[in-house]
Design a protein that fits this description.
about 120 residues; Aspartate Aminotransferase, domain 1; 3 helices; globular; methyltransferase activity; TfoX_N
């Protein structure tokens, strides 16, 4: 298991309570939750940090405020932070109200987010 199943269950429950029709996709060594075919949030166990992190797609305008919080880290798989995405440490989603806060930011940004282009299948 490359992600925290308990956190995944908490996210599923909250998204259902928010009446959000989501999909799940295992990727990047973790689990991604999608809304309207766009990444909403995800779970990743970070080897550098040593714990589960919540990946949140919150948008660039909200990012500037949220990144200043002690429980937030830049999302940088490649060493270069991804714009509009943030990692939240367990201190930031420990209780349900905190997790709900991050999910609401993700859901609010989702209509503005661009969907990834579908990958073309290689001809055989």
């Amino acid at each position: 298991m490359a992600y925290d199943e308990y956190l995944a269950d908490r996210i599923r429950q909250q998204l259902k309570e928010k009446r959000t029709h989501f999909a799940e996709l295992k990727m990047m060594g973790g689990l991604c939750f999608k809304l309207d075919n766009k990444m909403l949030c995800g779970i990743h166990i970070d080897k550098k940090y040593g714990d589960s992190l919540l990946m949140a797609r919150i948008g660039e305008s909200v990012y500037e405020t949220e990144i200043k919080k002690s429980e937030c880290l830049p999302m940088d798989f490649t060493g270069r932070p991804m714009k509009g995405y943030i990692f939240v440490t367990p201190d930031g989603f420990d209780n349900d109200d905190d997790l709900s806060y991050w999910l609401d930011l993700c859901i609010n940004f989702n209509p503005l987010a661009k969907a990834s282009k579908p990958k073309k299948k290689k001809a055989k």
